[in-house]
User: Fold these one by one.
Assistant:
Number 1:
Amino acid sequence: MLNRILGTLSGRTPDSIYVLTGGVEWDISVPVRTVGLFGPVGGQIEVFVWLQHWEDGMKLFGFPSERDRTLFLDLIKVEGIGPKQSLKILSGISSQDLALALDTGNLAALQRISGVGPKLAQKMVLALKGKLVDIDSAADQGAVASPWGDLAAALVDMGFDRKSVEAVVSARAADVGTGPESEKELFRIALLELSAGGGRR
């Protein structure tokens, strides 16, 4: 069973990444929100994966952290949610915010996700509330796995709340592209947004 892939990021689309390993290029579907978290094309990356296999084909799903993959697998256990829907849900909300909404039974937050109506939100809460791993540990794991971990750590050191930092960096990483100045631009954007939003501890 595949667990993770380590290789070179050879390309990306709005909802997938290509990873080159030993002459083989993997086409991996990822949550839209996380595409930018894998860093610039040409860089070395680690992707936690899950393989869907059916009679006529296979599809590989990937995540920037083991925690994100675990949440994806938790979601597909919910009645009415398959792999594609689970990926769509994780594209509409950060894993930390989703875990928090599920653990606290925040139906309003869940219904703001595209494709999640009242009935599905209730099913998600009934199936997963109180059954997820510790949210703070999840955030820590995501920070370590992210290529923007140093940037996030710098913002936390400046006094901003870690969960707010992770949410903003995750949401804005895809907006800065993959150029040499992308990290500086992401830092600038995150700093402005956190300052305006009152993200101090």
Number 2:
Amino acid sequence: MSGMTIFWLIFTVVMAVLEGLTVQLVSVWFAVGGLAACITSLFTDSIPIQAVVFVVVTAIALVVTRPLVKKIRKKKAEPTNADRYIGKTAVVVTAIDNQNAEGMVKVDNQKWTARSESGEHIPEGATVTVTAIEGVKLIVSINK
């Protein structure tokens, strides 16, 4: 075994281990390219040829698997029952003050902690629209 064969073999193993540790599909293409270069090094001692094989195989692996990777990485938002409140009108039952982390609204007979989307103070009794949900808080904007 030549020195470059050992180099490519070590490189491939390191990339495969790195991929296994990250599980983010970051270095798998380099491992595939490294394996191809390692095999090439068994037939030729030309480092430029090995490097070209590495780059070409890595690029091809990336292009071929890109649609699969996009599909895997695409995170689907899991809708919750709380999402039904977005866009609904609510009534402020405790004045909303983001500075003091205070505020509560009532929407569909349910009381929720609320915060103002714009940061403005919203008085008790005001009518607001739910624009988002962050954790257990409704984000609201005042109806004008």
Number 3:
Amino acid sequence: MPQKVLVLNQDFSALTICSVQKAFILVYMNKAELVSRSETDFLRTVTTTYPFPSIIRLHRYVHLPYKGVVLSRHNIFRRDSHRCQYCLATEELTLDHVVPKSRGGKSSWDNLVTACKRCNSKKGDFTPQEANMHLAQQPYKPSFIMFLRDFSGFIAEDWKPYLKKAKTY
């Protein structure tokens, strides 16, 4: 039974993912409407049965001045599938600056990758080309919708039409 609910803005654009409890409260308090529900699961009280939400839509439009993915260690690891981008190891992970900070490399989506301690140490203060190490994929900044779609851990079938607008890179 999935414990996540897709929250849509008033214009049906994907806004975020929340817990079933939070979604139920928004619907119950008449701040959102139920767009899609589970056919097999229900929320039960002693006297009443409620539909189990899968997608809700807010009644009021929420204007977000910045709708992007926060640059963080955890989000870089999620983008890179918790794998070293040099050897694909999954243990002892760190962050690596593709262009080293000592050479003007910034801490940005396009310059940070997940690396194991061994590869990070081997690469040292060199670029991947100088260290003769190849990246499994070039670092990129995921869009907000792409992040929801690809990295949230769970995507229900009925969410997919609302998460199709993402760019691939």
